[in-house]
Amino acid sequence: MKLYSVRSEYKYAELTESSIEKNPFKQFEHWLNDAMNAKVNEPTAMSLATFGIDGFPDSRIVLLKDYGNDGFTFFTNYNSNKGKSIAKHPAVGLHFFWPELERQIRISGFAEKTSDEISDNYFNSRPVLSQIAAIVSNQSSKIESREILQNSFVSEKEKIGDDKIKRPDSWGGFMVKPVKFEFWQGRESRLHDRILYEKTENNWTIFRLAP
After folding, report:
1. Domains identified in the chain and CATH numbers
2. Interior CA angle at 177 toward 182 and 101, to 5°?
3. Neighbours of 206 (CB within 10 A)
4. Could you give the CA distance from residue 140 to residue 132 in angstroms, rounded to a whole number?
5. Which residues are identified as catalytic?
6. How far apart are CA 78 and CA 113, in angstroms?
7. Looking at the whole model, is its pTM more than 0.70?
8. Pairing of strands 171-185, 66-68
């Protein structure tokens, strides 16, 4: 089968200036709730794009763990490639894609570390085995084998026993503070709806973009 014959027509919904929220965070909340109510697969999964430390653009999927009018929060190892990239170039992009709803959201903003309190609270809420994994995994580093990683995990689990696990200093949260949102709704004949919010001081200016 030739790939150029793979095609779907988008007819789920429309996106108009009269129907959207003036605040992009509220519009995001509506769409996220729609995705969760529709039981889409991994509704909080988002692509995080950074300026790679090797000079190439880099992207990966992370999970949104909190959001509000200040920004969007995820957690990771600060010594990972994405952690090092953000430390050097805090300008990042987030991308949500919910194909079941024929919707995308793109967010541009600046990432900064969350407070120790926020990182501690989330770390302590994680399953114990996930906490141990965060300790033994030097994320993004090269390792000789899966077996070595598994052995480190078992050893750390036995050492900790029933003790409370302390969050490693190298692990914590980032909050992305947006300066731009784009909401994309698929439409028939590829005449998609694209609504852009751009931050101007303390307000948001709304534009329609050509598809």
Report:
1. 8-125+171-209 (2.30.110.10)
2. 35
3. 15
4. 17
5. 190
6. 9
7. yes
8. unpaired
- Amino acid identity of residue 209, one-letter, is L
Share of the chain above pLDDT 90, in %: 83
CA distance 8 to 183: 19
Cα atoms found within 13 Å of the Cα of residue 133, Cβ hemisphere only: 7
Work out whether strand 193-200 and strand 45-51 pair parallel, antiparallel, or are unpaired.
unpaired
Q: 170: closest CA among 94, 113, 109, 90?
A: 113
Nearest-angstrom CA–CA distance, 114 and 5: 46
The band of 201, judged by pLDDT with boundaries at 50, 70 and 90, is confident
Structure tokens at 67: 């959001």
- Alpha carbons within 13 A on the beta-carbon side of 60: 14
Q: Which residues of 114-132 are buried (b: 16+ CB within 10 A; e: fewer)?
A: beeebbeebbeeeeeeebb
Distance (Å, rounded) from C-alpha 124 to C-alpha 111? 22
Token duo for residue 54: 């090797």
Residue 4 confidence (pLDDT): 83
1: which DSSP letter?
-
The secondary structure of residue 153, as a DSSP letter, is H
Q: How far apart are CA 170 and CA 89, in angstroms?
A: 18
Q: Which tokens in the block code for residue 84? A: 């090092």
